[in-house]
Amino acid sequence: MNETADTWRVGDVTVTRIVDTELHGVPIEAMFADLPGDRVRAVEWLQPDYATAEGALNVSFHAYLVESRGVRIIVDTCVGNDKPRQVPFFNQLTTPFLERLAAAGFAPEDIDFVLCTHLHIDHVGWNTRWTGDTWVPTFPNARYLFGRVEWDHWRREMEQAEDPWQIETRTVLQDSVVPIIDAGLHDLIETDHRITDEVALFATPGHTPGHVSVAIASAGQQAFIAGDVMHHPIQIADAGIHSIFDADGQHAERTRREFLKTAADQGVLVLGTHFARPSGGWIVRDGIGWRFASSPDTLPD
Questions:
Q1: What CATH number does residue 165 fall under?
Q2: N or C end of the chain: smaller count of CB under 10 Å?
Q3: Cα–Cα distances in Å, from 55 out to 40, 90, 190, 280, 292?
Q4: Residue 1 lies in a domain
Q5: Distances (CA, A) of 14 to 10, 63, 108, 199, 297
C-alpha cells in the first residue's frame, strides 16, 4: 500500500483506490448544515484520520478500480483536470490522477467499464480530458454506465437551467457526460444492473433520484462501494446527519440507515467514496448508532 492507492481483496475480486484530490480541515458547513463542531469532536474515533482536533473534516475524492473475472471497472471518476468550476477547490485542477492510475498498473486504455454512481460534479470529472480544443473520453475502450433514472433527471435539469447551481450542473454535464454520449460510448442502465457475476448495482436513492451503490460478492466475502450514501464517517456515528448536497435528505437518511444496518448485520466491507484514508472498513454497532472499524479484527464475535 502507499499514500495514494490502497488495495482490498474481496474473495477473487480486487479493489484499488485511486486518489484524485484530498482536502484536510474542511469547514463543517461546507458539507453539513447546523452541525456544531463539538458534535464532531465528541466522536473520538473520527480523529485524526477523518476529522481534526478542532472538529473540521478531512475529505477525499477518489475512484475505485474493481477487477472481476478479467474485467476492469472504474467506479466514479472524481473531479477531473482543467474543468471550469464555480467551486474554488474543484476549479481548474491539475492533479496526477492518471499517473496514480499508472502507478497502480493501469493505463486508460485498459479500462472496460466506467460506472458513475450518480452524475454530480465530483463523480464524473475524469470521464473526459481536455486535448487543447475539445473534451474527449479519458477511457477510450470503456463503456460508460449511467443510470437511466439518474440521466433522465439531470437531462431535464440541464434543459431547464436557470439558477447558478443548475447552470453549474449544465456545465458539468456538457464537459463530462455529453462528450461520452456523443462518442457513442455510454449505456443507460437500470439500478439493479449486473456488470459481472461478482459485481452488481443496487438502488440507494435520496442523495440523487437515481443514485446507486456497488455490491461485490465473491468466494463468501462481500463489499459495498457506497457512493454518496455517506459523505463522511460522521454519518455512520449519526445517520440522521444530512448533507447539504442531498436532493431529498429524508429519503437519503432512510437509505443510509438501511445501508448501515445491512452492512453491520452481514459483515460487509464498506468502501467510502469520500472517506479519507483508511477509506475502507466495517460497520460496528456502537450504542444507538455505529462506528467505522478499519480492521476486521475489531469486529465483535
A1: 3.60.15.10
A2: C
A3: 5, 23, 39, 21, 17
A4: no
A5: 6, 13, 18, 11, 20
Dig out the grid coordinates for 72 from the structure.
476492469
Task: Round to whole Å and give the CA distance between 224 and 19.
Answer: 18
Domain housing 130: 7-298
d(CA 67, CA 119): 23
Count CB atoms within 10 A of the CB of residue 127: 29
243 domain residue, yes or no: yes
Write the pLDDT tens digit of every residue in 55-108.
999 999 999 999 999 999 999 999 999 999 999 999 999 999 999 999 999 999
pLDDT tens digit sequence for 44-70:
999 999 999 999 999 999 999 999 999
- Other beta carbons within 10 angstroms of residue 93's beta carbon come to 18
Confidence of residue 34 (pLDDT cuts 50, 70, 90): confident
Whole-number Cα distances in Å, 287 to 42, 101, 231, 234, 238 = 14, 40, 22, 15, 11
- Structurally, the chain folds into a number of domains equal to 1
- Assess if residue 2 is contained within a domain: no
Which tens digits make up the pLDDT trace of 116-146? Answer: 999 999 999 999 999 999 999 999 999 999 9
Specify if 67 maps to a domain. Answer: yes
